């Protein structure tokens, strides 16, 4: 897709750069790239486990803190824990990047630049960070030191039978494939822990043929890592399953209709309503008051994940009226109309829909960052509130 | 009225953990108390209930948190400013203006608005209007009080009416959107 190629990698400095696939080594591309600095800059360890890189401290770690609350190991009063537990659904699990070495390097690079939803039951998605293409290339090289293209050899028909017999659909969707079984998949949610978490973390296998190195596909099925349990599959069976995953025909996904903005409402919408339903429900967790949290108002206020501070506090009426910082560090209104007349904040909310459909809006990052797009009715609510002069 | 929301941030949840073996547990607890108190004070200020703000502030025990102390200092200055009478000393008002002038050096526009209110109190109409005009132009007027300050100062009747109307939409307590008789008539 992208013509970045491996030249950018060679320019990365550390290590030997890339070696083009050489006939002697089968068809492996091996690189030695150290992107530890970039991993620190973009704070990947606030969500992911990354081999040989220390995890972020609990109080900065989006997943570790949520996990502790759900597991009941976070030391707080029981009533409070119970209340929080009822609210937290996102960033409760993320794939460990230790397993990223099974992926194709180019896929990782493209995914970092243009992330999409891989795991249908996981609420959070990989956030679209402000990564330069060269940074994405370098990170991909770090995470995938060896990229092998040896073909899959196995019997797809036997693999299909195994897929059905072993009940892979309990955890995995395989959208577009004949074996995709939504009814069986739905029962997977009720598996005993930790299989319920494995269900959430299981990728849609539709993407496996593009993102997983062919040889790694069989290796993974025979010896899975992370939360996928060992299913007693021998090497030959694993090759059959891999062949099936890689070759079974896939129906095209139904086209995602473009998000249609709803007309502004006739009824009155006040701050209390948009605050409760939108700003405090989702946005506030990244756009809060730094004064009340030891200087850290979250990535959307004080900066984080490689973003410069935007200083946007949506936790109060005064906070939201005070706008955000533009690229020059000057305050601007998040309600100001963009050239097409859309208020800035609404444009960010709509952009998330565009991103979910595979697009990118130039200069406008989709919000909420790394979370599913808001329902159009909630965007309508925000837009109505703005159109009515933002009543308190 | 709905229950007062707790104004915190995600990273405050960390501070809310009861840590039995934590030597500064008292400090952590006091910080949570202090945030609740500041929130109460600011909510009272928003509806111009200065009495309630004073009462809430009286429960305050000093904590080692400059940001919270700064917010309280802002609140004290605002109460002083907004409860001024004809007898309030000019030097005291000048100190308030100095305070917000320093605060307004940062990027937070609410301090600019409060500086404008202080200028209004000092009779520095042009300085106040310069700030408020700029905020209005950029759609960054942070609170309803700033609209009223503008309405009292502007010489243009249409702008004045628009500012009062904006106040009525954006004020939690619409009673603050009333012009003094001498201004309303002019």
Overview features:
heterodimer; A: 392 residues; mainly alpha; Cytochrome Bc1 Complex, Chain D, domain 2; two-stranded antiparallel ribbon; 5 strands; disordered N terminus; B: 186 residues; 2 domains; 66% helix; 0% strand
SSE diagram, text form:
The complex is a heterodimer of chains A (392) and B (186).
Chain A: H1 7-10, E1 17-18, E2 28-32, H2 36-41, H3 62-71, H4 78-87, H5 105-113, H6 133-143, E3 146-148, H7 156-166, H8 182-187, H9 195-201, H10 208-211, H11 214-222, H12 235-247, H13 271-279, H14 317-321, E4 324-325, E5 331-332, H15 344-356, H16 376-387
Antiparallel strand pairs in A: 1-2, 2-3, 4-5
Helix pairs in contact in A: 5-6, 7-12, 11-12, 13-16
Chain B: H1 12-16, H2 25-46, H3 50-58, H4 66-82, H5 90-103, H6 109-121, H7 125-137, H8 144-153, H9 157-170, H10 181-185
Helix pairs in contact in B: 2-3, 2-4, 3-4, 4-5, 5-6, 6-7, 6-8, 7-8, 8-9
Structural summary, described in words:
The complex is a heterodimer of chains A (392) and B (186). With 392 residues, chain A is mostly helical. Chain A has helices at 7-10, 36-41, 62-71, 78-87, 105-113, 133-143, 156-166, 182-187, 195-201, 208-211, 214-222, 235-247, 271-279, 317-321, 344-356, 376-387, and strands at residues 17-18, 28-32, 146-148, 324-325, 331-332. Helix content of chain A is 35%, strand content 4%. In chain A, strand 4 (324-325) and strand 5 form a beta hairpin. Residues 1-25 of chain A have low confidence and may be disordered. With 186 residues, chain B is mainly alpha-helical. In chain B, 66% of the residues lie in helices and 0% in strands. Chain B contains 10 helices and no strands. The radius of gyration of chain B is 18 Å and the shape is globular. The relative contact order of chain B is 0.08. The model of chain B is unreliable at 1-10 and 17-25 (pLDDT under 50). Chains A and B meet through helix 14 and strand 5 of A and helix 1, helix 2, helix 4 and helix 9 of B.
